[in-house]
Automatic annotation (TrEMBL):
Family: Belongs to the iron-sulfur cluster assembly SufBD family.
Protein name per Swiss-Prot or TrEMBL: Fe-S cluster assembly protein SufD
Domain SUF system FeS cluster assembly SufBD core positions: 123-347
Lineage, top ranks: Bacteria, Bacillati, Actinomycetota, Actinomycetes, Streptosporangiales
The organism's place on the tree of life at top rank: Bacteria
Alphabetized SUPFAM superfamilies for the sequence: Stabilizer of iron transporter SufD (SSF101960)
Length: 374
């Protein structure tokens, strides 16, 4: 399958399953200008040998089906076509795709657990996951990344009519890991999607969550937190493509940065097409820069092609801790270090509380505490 002739927008010009349709990035392109290509170790140009060891396992509750299929399975690539070179490389390089299916009207009692474990960075590995939630079903999916890896993958979330899918993706990689991933959610009529991203580990992590609607009534909420340490590059590039009337989207990502050359990148693109009347959307990104030498790049983009919208807005802010907040706590006898931790915990904790799995929520809070102790 070749180039998609219909451009996604002026910001996202093409999609294709063919690697040849994407030039090797040079770093001068808009979609690659913030990413240090040399640290991708060949994921972007095909130089990485496909000898990496990444093991993916699915643990499903009763009634949920998980199977490994070949790339010619009709469910693979149906909802998403790659939009850049690394994504296309991953699509053309995986051996088997994991397909998880939640049957019609099913409501599993437990979350679906997908574990991705890396075994080293000596060679590249590629993956593909499809999560299909059939009409009127409800499910929670946890995708947990750990270990060392040089890894690129694509994940498709297909949410049927009136269905609800909640996804928590945890990037808890080892310090040397490199991960480039696209997460695409396709929403049918009156479907609900709640995506939560937690990015803490890795040397370089670049995630690109996106949402598309196939019928009216879709409702998407994309949230995320990240904590960037010295030398880390954590990048999140979001796209919400409103192409159907009367759909909603809300985006809220928050990050904290500390240490020399800690670098966070957040790009938020929302498109409201001519036919998407009645759209209600808002996107927000906030960054706390805790030390000198850290850098946050935050670029919200809102492209509106119709005047008939219910609401549309965006905001971005990056700055230091608020001295007034610290002073307020110190005035009540709380030492500076503890006051600082309380403010940061409150800043990130407002989003962490949205994680619907209690044990995972506690794990993330513990990870944040560990970051604050560094």
């Amino acid at each position: 399958m070749g180039l998609n002739e219909k451009p996604l927008s002026t910001l996202h010009e093409k999609s294709s399953y063919s690697l040849d349709d994407f030039a090797v990035p040079t770093g001068r392109e808009e979609q690659w200008r913030f990413t240090p290509l040399s640290r991708l170790k060949g994921l972007h140009n095909g130089a990485a040998e496909v000898t990496g060891q990444v093991v993916t396992q699915a643990f499903t509750p009763a009634g949920v089906n998980a199977e490994w299929v070949s790339r010619d399975d009709a469910r693979v690539g149906k909802a998403y076509a790659p939009v850049d070179r690394v994504s296309a490389q991953a699509y053309n390089s995986f051996e088997k795709a994991l397909v998880v299916t939640v049957p019609k009207e099913a409501v599993p009692a437990e979350p679906i657990q997908i574990e991705v474990r890396g075994g080293g960075v000596e060679g590249a590995a590629y993956g593909h996951i499809v999560v299909k939630v059939e009409p009127m079903a409800e499910a929670v999916v946890v995708i947990d990344h750990q270990g060392s890896a040089l890894y690129a993958d694509n994940i498709e979330f297909v949410v049927g009519d009136g269905a609800t899918l909640k996804v928590i993706s945890l990037q808890d990689w080892a310090d040397d890991a490199v991960h480039v991933s696209h997460h695409h959610a396709q929403l049918a009529k009156d479907a609900t999607f709640r995506g939560f991203v937690v990015t803490l580990g890795g040397d370089l992590v670049r995630l690109s969550p996106s949402v598309a609607y196939t019928a009216p009534g879709g409702d998407a909420d994309l949230s995320g937190i990240y904590f960037v340490d010295a030398g880390q590059h954590l990048e999140h590039r979001l796209l919400v493509d409103h192409s159907q009337p009367n759909c909603k989207s809300y985006v809220d990502y928050r990050g904290a940065l500390q240490g020399e050359d800690a670098h966070a990148v957040w790009i938020g693109d929302v498109i409201i097409r001519v036919e998407a009347e009645g759209t209600d959307t808002y996107e927000l990104n906030r960054n706390l820069i805790l030390t000198d030498g850290a850098r946050a790049d935050s670029v919200p983009n809102l492209e509106i092609l119709t005047g008939e919208v219910a609401g549309a807005g965006h905001a971005s802010a990056s700055g230091r801790l608020d001295d007034e907040h610290i002073f307020y706590l110190q005035a009540r006898g709380i030492p500076y270090d503890e006051a600082r931790r309380l403010v940061i915990r409150g800043f990130l904790g407002q989003l962490v509380e949205k994680i619907s799995v209690p044990e995972l929520r506690e794990r993330v809070l513990a990870k944040v505490e560990a970051e604050l102790e560094k």
